[in-house]
Structures are given as C-alpha cells and as structure tokens.
Amino acid sequence: MEKTKLLAFCGIIEPIIYAIVLIVLGFLEPEYNHLTDFMSELGAVGAANALAMNLFGFALLGFLIVFFCFRIV
C-alpha cells in the first residue's frame, strides 16, 4: 500500500474506531449515559475501563489524526 493511501486510511478508520470504543466502553461503565455524560468520564480516574479509553480512545485517536495530517502536508 502506498504511503499516502495508508495515511488516508488512518483518517478514514479513526472515527470508526473511536465510535466503536466509545459505544462499547460506555455500555460497560455501570452508570454511564451516552446522551447526558461527557465521553471524558470514561477515561477519568476511578472509571472501570479508564485505561482502555485512554489508550484506545484518546491516545490512538491522537496518533491517527497526526498520521492523517502528514498526508495533507
């Protein structure tokens, strides 16, 4: 796969992965409501799956956005 196609793929797959992580971890959190609670509450200290949200939600999101930006430059 070409470098630009791979970087474009990062931009396409990023929102899909983030939505899946947000939905799954939201359902796993006991009193989390997708409509009224902030998504950062899933990564807060003391949350049941905080490590998963911080790694797969926020950190992976940041890396994929940065990689996608290299395609634009």
Structural class: mainly alpha
Helical segment count: 2
Number of structural units classed as domains? 1
Q: What's the helix-strand series?
A: HH
Reported for the largest beta sheet, the result is:
none
Termini gap: 19 Å
Strand fraction = under 5%
Mean pLDDT: 88
Helix content: 55-70%
What is the overall shape?
elongated
- Uncertain regions spanning at least 5 consecutive residues: none
Number of strands: 0
Radius of gyration: 14 Å
Task: List the topology elements.
Elements: H1 3-28, H2 50-72
Helix pairs in contact: 1-2
What structural keywords apply?
elongated; 73 residues; mainly alpha; 2 helices
Structure in words:
The relative contact order is 0.20. The chain is built from 2 helices and no strands. Helix 1 runs antiparallel to helix 2 (50-72). The chain has helices spanning 3-28, 50-72. It has 73 residues and is mainly alpha-helical. The model has no long low-confidence stretch (mean pLDDT 88).
Question: What's the short version?
Answer:
The chain has helices spanning 3-28, 50-72. By secondary structure, it is mainly α.
